[in-house]
Amino acid sequence: MSFFNNAIVTVTELMPKSVVGFFSSKYIAGESLDDGIRVVKELNAKGIFATMDVLGESVTNKAEAEDAKNKASDVLDAIVKHKLNANLSIKPTQMGLSIDEEFAYNRVTELVEKAARIDNFVRIDMEDSPYTDKTFNLFKRIFSEYKNVGVVIQAYLRRTYSDAMSLNKLGANYRLCKGIYVEPASIAYKGKQEVRDNYLRTLKEMFSSGNYVGIATHDKFLIDGAYDLIKEMNIPKDKFEFQMLLGVREDLRDKINADGYKIRVYVPFGKDWYAYSIRRLKENPQMAGHIFKSIIGIK
Predict the structure, then answer these.
(1) Quick check: is 238 catalytic?
(2) Domain CATH for 194
(3) Catalytic one of 125, 163, 196, 264
(4) Active-site residue identified among 107, 123, 175, 264
(5) Do the domain assignments include residue 59?
(6) In angstroms, what CA-CA distances link 275 with 24, 56, 272?
(7) Is residue 125 annotated as part of the catalytic site, yes or no?
(8) Is 15 inside a domain boundary?
(9) Is residue 175 part of a domain?
(10) What is the distance between the alpha carbons of residues 229 and 225, in angstroms, rounded to a whole number?
(11) What's the structural domain count of the chain?
């Protein structure tokens, strides 16, 4: 099956941009903020929450970072104007983290301050390993002043359980995911079950410490494991939510929603959709298989 998925990725890279757009249209809201608003309204109508993300990362200069910050600010305005059940997700390198850490801190803080004024929330996404410590430092610094900010933690990294132990003491708000970036075995688990085991071990520690967790996964094994922990530990519904990517495993998404648990969907949009699509497929070939089977009608 991995050969099949990787073959789809290779073929997709050779296709015209318009064809890639057809493949990815289910998983990206569109190019404009209006597209993002439309999709979030559709999700909200089903009782599903959203987090909105203007696509783009690793900007090359401060002007690009400032533009990215302004577009993220527009998302917060749209959430208020359209009364959306949504919050904001941002990439730290999109805000200039790879250029100037202090500059990025000021950009992100401005967004978190604005979100606080409208009773909203900003999620700082996690990127690849060169930015792990820088992202945690950025989060900790802002979290010391504002509590409407959260961070992402990746279960496939060997350091993750230790990071969670440390961040739990601060009362951090998490999105716990498996992780998608290609990392060396020296710092990342490579076995499927190893990652799953570390995910559930970390989730249990987060629950034990009373932290709020966004349980971000499309893996039914992990969803079932989370259900078991929630029941065993009697975790209140206001201490967690489930999270998924737009268009992926909608059957599981709808089941979680029907089971009465809060579910939030990541809604990406923007002109950088092509780079995002190709990167996503390269980093997670299994998603390519899901997309292909969805298009041709195979469950």
Answers:
(1) no
(2) 3.20.20.220
(3) 125
(4) 175
(5) yes
(6) 11, 8, 6
(7) yes
(8) no
(9) yes
(10) 6
(11) 1
Residue by residue, pLDDT tens for the chain (299 residues) are 455 555 655 655 555 566 666 667 788 999 999 999 999 999 999 999 999 999 987 799 999 999 999 999 999 999 999 999 999 999 999 999 999 999 999 999 999 999 999 999 999 999 999 999 999 999 999 999 999 999 999 999 999 999 999 999 999 999 999 998 889 999 999 999 999 999 999 999 999 999 999 999 999 999 999 999 999 999 999 999 999 999 989 999 999 999 999 999 999 999 887 777 776 666 555 655 555 554 445 44
